[in-house]
Amino acid sequence: MLDPAWVREHDFDVLHLHFGFDALDPDDLVALVDAVHDTGRAFVQTVHDLRNPHHLDRRLHDEQLDALLPRADALLTLTPGAAGEIQRRWGREATVVPHPHVVDLRTMAVAADCRARRRTDAFRVGLHVKSLRPSMAPLRVLPTLAETVADLPGAVLQVNAHRDVVQGGAREDAELYEWLRDAEASGSVDLRVHDFLPDQDLWNYLGSLDLSVLPYRFGTHSGWLEACRDLGTTVLAPTCGYFAEQGPVLSYEHDEDHIDLASLDAAVRRAHAERPQWGAGIDERRVQRAEVAAVHERVYADVARTVGR
């Protein structure tokens, strides 16, 4: 669909781009939008990432955004902070549309019931190293996190790792795995190694946590954060990006150049002491979904009418 030939061969009114252009040359993206416009259609983009979490070097993504954003007929994004950055960098106004729920409503209801029945003295902190995106810096976070959790009554630190990170896969990190094995042997970490989790297993895992720690040193927005909110799990997010604008979260200072471990320790202790209930309820998500749909309908109608065919 991101090929100008596909655009010219298919009938539609609006092409709305979210993801999928990571590896494309900026000139190819210019050609894509030109093909949309040359055939009388409209191009809309939702800007999820202002800094690509998969790219260690930001230059390619910046060039891709330079190709797309000035040419879009309408822009959307998820937070006011991201909209402000878009205005500063490209002089374009982006409509802010909140991220809708990630977890289905029935699973949200089951998770809420399970959480209500859970022991109140237990406190499970989770850090998921997945397939180690370049944006992730778990070893900056883990030593302090383990020390803090060990000092809290009833608290457990659970680390979930994909096999490709710790068992000879494409993203193996020997230093991280050595640390995790030692921590597991000492009893300071409950280590779970597995392949990619199907959705239901992922929701069960996230719903079992009281606090999910995001070990990102750069980024913009997070679908993981939204899934945690759907399941009633408090999120501890870094101060980089605009994670804290997506919904109520705890924060600690962390970006590419700096981490404040005291703020990490303090946030975990606050979560343990206060047990904040900052999840997004089912009624809230229903209303939000309707609002998101209405905004998209309005944007599509506006650009289709303006561009015309």
From TrEMBL:
SUPFAM superfamilies recorded: UDP-Glycosyltransferase/glycogen phosphorylase
Name the record gives this protein: Glycosyl transferases group 1
Species assigned in the record: Nocardioides dokdonensis FR1436
